[in-house]
Amino acid sequence: MAEVKIESVSKLFGEVKAVDNFTATVRDGEFVSILGPSGCGKTTMLRMIAGFEKASLGEISIGDQLVSSSKVKKFLPPEKRNIGMVFQSYAVWPHMSVFDNVAYPLKIRRVNSQEIQEKTMKALELVHLDQYAQRFPNQLSGGQQQRVALARALVAEPRLLLLDEPLSNLDAKLRESMRFEIKELQKKLAITVIYVTHDQAEAMAMSDRIIVMHAGVIQQVDEPTVIYENPANQIVADFIGLVNFIEADATEGRVSLPELGMELAYEAPFTGKGVVAVRPEHIQLSSSGAGVKGTILHRLYLGDATDIRVQVKDKVLRVIDKGNSYQKYSEGDAVVIDFDKLIVFPNEKLS
Ligand SMILES: Nc1ncnc2c1ncn2[C@@H]1O[C@H](COP(=O)(O)OP(=O)(O)OP(=O)(O)O)[C@@H](O)[C@H]1O
């Protein structure tokens, strides 16, 4: 178990700044996800923690040990960092039995054979594969193969577990059940985990905290509920969950939305032009009453909710309604809209 301290870390690949001034601390025993779109630098950051990539600038410490520093020119190779890793591809060796796959990290450390036997079986029990020890990977399902990779990452009792999209090759159902398994395992072992994903549902479900990245730069570090309810900026609001963006003009105590012909009492943290973000589940529809009027364009039945597009002047808003909207409204019906909750951001450039 260990705390991971990352201070002002940057990584340049020629002209490309893959990671730009990344600073974060992952606490001992914490499960932290690095979340962001493809190419935002998540894997590069993880590979620098593991030691497969050297940081151009900055420092990384694991526990009390400085493992990488551009200042004092220190760089500890991966095998000296005592880290377990699981990647996207299962990376289990097809010519080795499940037992030998999991035992491998102990064998290269020249651990004695009795200890290898005990520790390997213990790791296989942890991932519920002890009865499969003598099978070969091609006799296992995708989920079981990924559990072999997990057991192999844990067998040497690492102080830190790094996971890079470990579930992305699995089908949706298996992915969900593996989320629980990984989380349970992490709690049981009280191990520090850094988990890289572009899947927000995965990050939300498993993490104590999420680091949201965009174009190499950290946008927000917070608990999942805070990231969803109070995104730090437009980029985070857009990436996490669904959102309607509406042009806004903030004055003291009021926000006007010219695109909708709407004005709201709202104390924005700035005055001037900005953008209002409203989640689809925070828009209420009613068939009558005072307020801004719209027309139902489309509605899709989702079983537990209805996904609706409402035309308001020239703008189309997305609404997710958990009530009986599908029966209540038809396409072309007039509705009145209201917002339960909104966030106002100052104008910023979205890249
Ligand atoms: N070895 C390399 N040489 C040059 N550029 C690289 C190298 N590795 C990564 N990059 C670039 O650095 C940026 C970040 O890549 P990285 O793989 O870290 O992103 P990511 O967020 O993990 O994306 P994905 O989810 O697609 O894996 C990208 O622009 C990528 O093209």
UniProtKB/TrEMBL annotation:
The keyword ATP-binding applies. The keyword Zinc-finger does not apply. Keywords: ATP-binding, Nucleotide-binding, Transport. SMART domains: AAA. It comes from the Bacteria. This is Iron ABC transporter ATP-binding protein. Signal peptide: none annotated. GO terms for cellular component: ATP-binding cassette (ABC) transporter complex, substrate-binding subunit-containing. Pfam families: ABC_tran, TOBE_2. InterPro entries: AAA+_ATPase, ABC_transporter-like_ATP-bd, ABC_transporter-like_CS, ABC_transpr_MalK/UgpC-like, Mo/tungstate-bd_C_term_dom, NA-bd_OB-fold, P-loop_NTPase, Transp-assoc_OB_typ2. Residues 4-240 form the ABC transporter domain. PANTHER family: GLUCOSE IMPORT ATP-BINDING PROTEIN GLCV, MALTODEXTRIN IMPORT ATP-BINDING PROTEIN MSMX. It comes from Anaerosporomusa subterranea. GO terms for molecular function: ABC-type transporter activity; ATP binding; ATP hydrolysis activity. Transmembrane segments: none annotated.
